[in-house]
Amino acid sequence: MMKVSKLIASICLCFLVAFFGSLATFSSIATWYAHLNKPFFNPPNFIFGPVWSVLYALMAISLFLVWNKGLKHKKVKAAFEVFILQLLLNLLWSLVFFGLHLPYVGLLVIIALWISIFYTLSLFKKISVTAYWLLVPYIAWVSFAMILNFFVAILN
After folding, report:
1. Read out DSSP for 113-128?
2. How many CB atoms are closer than 10 A to CB 106?
3. DSSP character for 36?
4. pTM of the model
5. Domain 2-155: which topology?
6. 10-residue stretch averages of pLDDT, the chain, 156 residues long
7. Are 112 and 91 in contact (CB under 8 A)?
């Protein structure tokens, strides 16, 4: 029963962040973001929602796999805490970039996010290789988003 509770909590936590991030994002897509100059490789808007949904699901499962090892272990607790940090930075990026319309500040946040994801990966790999691999698409997508953010900042 405890495993099920941790899985549900992991899913709820990740998708709660997704929900709050989407509040800032959705209101800007058709207005502010639509009028920005974007690089030629910017994907169509309809791609982002499904990709982020899959990524948040993978993040939740990854968190569950690590959390399930027990927070009483120092390395698990540290990995859990770093995961929470990167999750908060993920939310902050949406709020700064889309909510406040600050691409340059968003670039600083997404760089910090990337570093925290990289650190999360290194900690997760020591606890669960599966959890590690579940986060690889996330860092790949955030790497792409960081490049997009850079070009949006430069072009505008």
Report:
1. HHHHHHHHHHHHHHH-
2. 26
3. S
4. 0.95
5. Ferritin (1.20.1260)
6. 93 98 94 97 96 98 97 96 98 98 98 98 98 98 98 98
7. no
Q: Quick check: 88 and 112 in contact, CB under 8 A? A: no
- Domain ranges across the chain: 2-155
What is the token pair recorded at 13? 């936590």
Using the 8-state DSSP alphabet, how is residue 44 labeled?
A: P
* H-helix segments, the chain: 2-29, 45-67, 74-94, 103-127, 129-155
Between the alpha carbon of residue 36 and those of residues 8, 9, 44, 93, 145, the distances in Å are 38, 37, 13, 17, 15
* Chain-centre distance for alpha carbon 145: 10
* CB-CB contact of 110 with 149 (8 Å): yes
Taking the C-alpha atoms of residue 62 and residue 66, their distance in angstroms, rounded to an integer, is 7
Three-state DSSP at 107 gives: helix
Which among 88, 100, 86 has a CA at the least distance from the CA of 24? 100
Separation between Cα atoms, residue 121 and residue 131, nearest integer Å: 8
CA–CA dist 50, 18 (Å, integer): 12
